[in-house]
Amino acid sequence: MIDDINLRILVSNIVAEKHYSHCRLCLGYIKDQYVRFTDTVSLNRESETFEPVNKIVTKLLGHNVCDEIPGIDAVCISCVDKVLEAFRFIETCAKSTQLINKVINNLSNALNIDVDESKKGQALYIIVEENESKLLWTKKQDKKRTNQSKQAPIECYMCSKSFGSYIDLKAHNLINHETFTCDKCYEAFTSESKLTLHESTVHKLKCPECPQYRNTVEALEEHITRVHTIVICGECGKTCQGKDKLKIHEEKHNTKFVCPKCGKRYATKDFYLKHVKLCLDDLIDPHPIRSSIKKDYTCEKCAKAYSTPGGLRVHNRFAHGNAKPHVCKECGKQFTAPSYLRHHMIKHTGEKNFICDLCGSRFVSKEALLYHTRRHTGEKPYSCKYCNERFVNASARAEHIKFKHIGPTLMCEICSRKFVTSYFLKQHISRHHDPSSKLYYGRNMIPPNMPGEQNMRTFKIGSEK
Question: pLDDT digits over 23-34, tens only?
Fold first, then answer.
């Protein structure tokens, strides 16, 4: 700031001819770097244009500013930046003024014409460019055709740019490609006569789903199948609007990432990288083939076995440790991640946000919708290795194998009866502890003369008044 300048030191350095001690523009004391008036600086970083400082300052402030007086014969770095910024701003203003004047003159010359009677009733498009402006006449668009419902972005065939409406595409083609666009199939023609001939001979059948036309029944059916028919992915059961979108979706299944250690495949790179990072460090049990993999590492607390020590460590951490900090407020169940808790909460809220495109049924999860969709398609991607039966999901196949091929393996320690699932075993054991059940394990200890009713539990409903 000018008010902070020590004039005594300034004058002393000028009298002593102490070169480059103060900045000529702000008169501030130069501590470190400075630029002399004869040094060149960059005006344009991209073109690397250089010019002396005194020439730039002279253009901005006049000739007297650059008189090299000892002591104030340099410019500080801060002032150099401000000078360059001011110079670039003035140049930009001058160029913009020159450009707008040039465009207005070209536009005035283009509009200074007599309108031909044959052009009345037609739409006028003005092509505005820097060096030339010209007019294009074309017939007006039918309002019934322009008032169409919302549609997908329309792509220009020549430059692949997308537009939200036919009017935008038409204007784009006229201005940039000087072509005339068909409002039915969006094909472009070099003259209006060719467009008229095209419209009268090609477009006969209108698509019931969108504004496009086709000239044969076969072409219309092909268009409806390709764009509008609901098709289902055979790999995952996802529904797609048209074969084109199905083809794009199926590319995701073709591009799969394979873990180099366990062979597990992923359709997305993010999940693949997360899996590989854990798998290579033995932090998860990869179990590529659950039925044949050798599991030598057994949990001492629950006897669950794993094929790698890393898998056992992760099991202890999540099953017996404190790695489930996210607790459901409704039932107290714990989860390892907030996303698992949110998914679990759907059971309490009953929200069904996943809708079937084929029948409108709603489901609480994406997996439930996928399995339901397979009911429509009849797809059963999970096959039993023991027989020819197939299933819509892995859990249904596992239940089939347990009941049909493996049989009961879980034995009751009281009566040695075996069961297929732990749920059935728990239900059975609870009957051994229920005095009202025939399986009550203490029944053989009841004295023979004691009435059976005295050994039965009684429940009173309500209260006596």
Answer: 888 888 888 788
